Amino acid sequence: MSDEAIILDRGYRSYEGHRSGVGGAIRSVTWHSIRNVLGIGRLARHKVFPAVSVIIAYLPALIFVGIAALFPVDLVGEDVLPSYADYVGFIGIAIVLFCGLVAPEVLVRDRRDGMLGLYLSTPLQRDTYLVAKVAAVMGTLMIVTLGPPLLLLIAYTFEGSGPGGIADWLVLFLRIVASGVAISAIFAAVSLAASSLTDRRAFASVGVILVLLGSSAVVSSLVEAAEMSTNLRLFDLLAMPFELVQRIYGEPGDFPEIETTWVVGANVGWTLFGASVMWLRYRRLAVSR
Amino acid sequence: MMQGVTVITVRGLTMQFGAQRALDNLDIAIPPGVTGLVGANGAGKTTLMSIVLGLREATSGTVEVLGMDPKSLGSRIRARVGYAPERNVLPEDMKAVDFVRHLSEVRGLPRDEARNRASDSLWLVGLGEERFRAIGTMSTGQRQRVKLAQAIAADPKLVLLDEPTDGLDPMQRDQMLALIRQINDEFGIDVLLSSHLLEEVERVCDHVVALDAGRLVADGPLADLIGGNEGVELELVDIADRPHSIDDVASSLAASGLDVTRDGAVLTVVGPDTDVLADAARDAVAEHGARIRRLSSRKRTLEDLFMEQS
């Protein structure tokens, strides 16, 4: 044993150091929730579904990057390689599936197993708890809404097929970030609202997917089969976020007859509506222990 | 008792759920130390704890925790209060050390400190070797210890423990009660222990708050509530040729100024000194030629207090 060797008997003792307060509590719950959803530190079976969703979201991007690397862009052109705006719609099913997983896991679990009461016995209050949960859902959704387009941008840039100059690159980068954040916020609000209404994760997951797909099916039927006003598309919770992404990239989108202002308004409206439903539900929720 | 240093002060606290009054105009002052919050299921213990934690807002009245008002300084209070709920809230697939570390971070500790203190707390409650096990694989006793560890890991000033011995066997219960006593004696953490088991409260608490159907039945130091009234139980035998011997013994003891109650052939004599009572009982029996079947000391308990007050 060297002369410098010492044995530290830590043991339980008092702590007089810094405490991070509400900000630290929000960060910790956010990170903990993200880890939970992704199955980090949990049994293997909890990693399967998020892994599948992430693979569905990233695999096309990797394939497109490979195609762009192997073949000249002039040769394959835009018929094969989708635009950044189209890519988000391309992986729409992965986003919907991920929504069905993420919000119920993040929100319902705490109510069902009593962790909500334990969290509310810490510096967190209902509002700050919800801030942490919204951040967790948005952060997790951005893995599939923001990550793949960013991967495409970086890979295309290294392959020499990215935007022409720094200014164009920055504009595209900002559009990718804006669309990723926007689509995550809308889907987070809608899926959290649905998840706040039940204490069963399975019901919440089905509910989230039904709300998204069901609203789209009903609106499409009314517009296409019943030939009602195309403005009803504003109630299509699945299509409107993807339409907003198209507009952020400056493209006309799938419903060019609807003005961009209305598209933005509908998405903001649905986000606020979803957030309000969740907030009202938690404001009234009885938490005793 | 509304004077001196208190960790929790409640004034005129009422909680109404529709037509049901869960707490009825309570005035309570809980001093430092280990305090037992006792009462039957439905007495209002959990409701009171919820209000102290800020999980519920009282219908009327005021609460002060660690000298602060939960309404305006709730986050600051809760950063210094640990809580172990009655319900099993532990995530099954999480390691004990990860769970305790996470709750410590949420209560404001930096990441490294939270990690170290999670281990320290789990060692303290006797789960040092088990800290990397998934909570779902642990026994009920171990889970109760994990709940205690998360409550104390962030070095609280006060911990609220809701039925911490629930589901434990007698040996585990002894160990848990010893741990609760230890965290107050060695580390100066004040404890509010909610329990419907009066016997365990008597074993570990300095102070008792007793509720019955939302009303305050008793509030004071345990020694004052039960300590000065020990007694003896005297079981006599009916004798055919001395039909009034039991009455005579009871009258004799009562005439000596002792508090005597009779239940059949059993006389209960209550007073401050068991030895004096036993001597008096023996003398009375000898004087009236009665015959003793049993003479045993009898300690006044919280149950007696409840029976008298309810």
Describe the structure using short key phrases:
heterodimer; A: 289 residues; mainly alpha; 0% strand; B: alpha/beta; Rossmann fold; Alpha-Beta Plaits; 4-stranded antiparallel sheet; elongated
Question: How would you summarize this macromolecular structure in one to three sentences?
Answer:
Chain A is built from twelve helices and no strands.
Q: What would you say this structure looks like, in words?
A:
The complex is a heterodimer of chains A (289) and B (310). Chain A is mainly α. Chain A has one domain. Chain A is 72% helix and 0% strand. With 310 residues, chain B is of the alpha/beta class. Chain B folds into 2 domains: 215 residues, 3-Layer(aba) Sandwich (Rossmann fold), CATH 3.40.50.300; 82 residues, Reverse transcriptase/Diguanylate cyclase domain (Alpha-Beta Plaits, 2-Layer Sandwich). Chain B has 11 helices and 13 strands. In chain B, strands 5-6-7-3-8-9 form a 6-stranded mixed sheet, with helices on both faces. In chain B, a hairpin with a 2-residue loop joins strand 11 and strand 12. The chains are: A mainly alpha (289), B alpha/beta (310).
Summed over residues and divided by their number, the pLDDT of chain A gives a mean of: 88
- Return the string of H and E elements of chain B: EEEHEHEHHHEHEHEEHEHEEHEH
Tell me roughly what share of residues is in helical segments of chain B.
Answer: 25-40%
Q: What does the overall shape of chain A look like?
A: globular
Mean pLDDT of chain B: 87
SSE layout and pairings?
The complex is a heterodimer of chains A (289) and B (310).
Chain A: H1 21-38, H2 45-70, H3 73-80, H4 84-90, H5 92-113, H6 115-119, H7 126-145, H8 147-159, H9 166-195, H10 201-225, H11 239-248, H12 260-284
Helix pairs in contact in A: 1-5, 1-7, 2-5, 2-8, 4-11, 5-7, 5-9, 5-10, 7-9, 8-9, 9-10, 9-11, 9-12, 11-12
Chain B: E1 8-17, E2 20-30, E3 34-38, H1 45-53, E4 60-65, H2 70-79, E5 81-84, H3 96-106, H4 111-124, H5 140-152, E6 158-162, H6 170-185, E7 190-195, H7 198-204, E8 207-212, E9 215-221, H8 222-227, E10 230-237, H9 245-255, E11 259-263, E12 266-271, H10 274-288, E13 291-298, H11 302-309
Parallel strand pairs in B: 3-7, 3-8, 5-6, 6-7
Antiparallel strand pairs in B: 1-2, 1-4, 8-9, 10-12, 10-13, 11-12
